[in-house]
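OP here, attaching both records as promised.
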Amino acid sequence: LFRERRRELGLTVRQVAERAGYNARNISKGMRKYSGLEEPECCFPRATVRDKFARALDITPEQVTAALRADVVKLDTPVEPYVVIRYMPAVYGSRRAPAHWDRQRAMKVLQRYADLSGRSCCLVLSRIRGIYFWPDAEPRESYGLPGSPLLDGMDTVLSAGTDGGLQKALHRHQREQARKDRTEAL
C-alpha cells in the first residue's frame, strides 16, 4: 500500500519522510522508519509510525484498515501442519504432523500427549494461528504461535510464521484494534 502510493505520487523515500515531519537533523531516522513499511514482510507496523506516514501520503484510515485485514488473510493461509512441543519455559521443539492425520485425529492425539506427558503443545495451522493443548484442559484455537530463539539448531521444521517479531507485531495490532473498538463504542 505504502510503496504503491509513494510511486503514484512520484515521491522519493526522503520526500515522504520530509512530508511526515522529519527534518535535516533526523531525516535518516524518518527514511529508515518509512522504508520498513515498504518491506515485503512488513505486517502490522506500529500504529504511530503507520499513521504518520499514511497521513503524509494521503492514505485514508479505511485503506489502512483494508491493508491490515489483507495481511491477516495472507498470513492465515494454511501451512503444512506441524506440532510445537514446550519442553520447558522458552525451550520448544517441533515435529511435522503425520500426513494421514486429519484435524480430529490430530486433536485427539495431541490432547492425549499433553495429558500423559504433562507438556503443552500446539498444532500449527498457519503462520499466525494454532490450536493449543494443555494437560487436563480443553484445546483452544488462538492467533499467536509459540517460538524460541533456542529452536535454531534443534530438529525443527518451523516456518517463518513463528518469527517472534511477527508474533509481537500481530499481538500489538490486536491490542491496538481492541483499543480502537472500545473507543468507538463509547
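Record two, same layout:
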Amino acid sequence: MPAVMEIVRFQLREGVTDEKLLAAAERFSRKVSPSLPGLERRELLATGEHSYLLLDRFASRQHFDEAPAAIGTNPLAEAFTACRPTRQTAWPVEPPADAVEDVVINYREEDFVQFVVDDVAKGRGAETEFYAHVGSR
C-alpha cells in the first residue's frame, strides 16, 4: 500500500504563543505519536511569523483513517489543536475557514441525556402541531 502524507498549514490562534504551540507539539510527539498506528514521521515546521506546516506520514491510507480513533479525545491532542484558530483545514486553493470557538462539555453523559430529552420534546411538539393541522382540514 502507498504511504499517505497529511499536510496541514495553519496560523496560531490569537493569544497563543509559539512557545505554547511548540510545548504542546513536543508533548504530543512524545506521548501520543508512538501510539498512532502506522505513523512513520511527524514534523512541525515554522513557515513564517506564527505560521506552521504540520507533516504526518502514515504507512497506509488505513493507518491514516485509524488515527482519529486512536487519538480520541486525548487532552494532549486537544491542547495541540487548540493552538490553531480552527480545526478545519482549507485546501490550498480555498480561503481559510472562519475561526470557531470550541464548546467545552464537562458533563458529557448528562448533556447527552438532556439533548435527547429536549429533542424528543421538540419532536412531540412538531407531531402535535402536525396532527392539529390535519384535524382542521
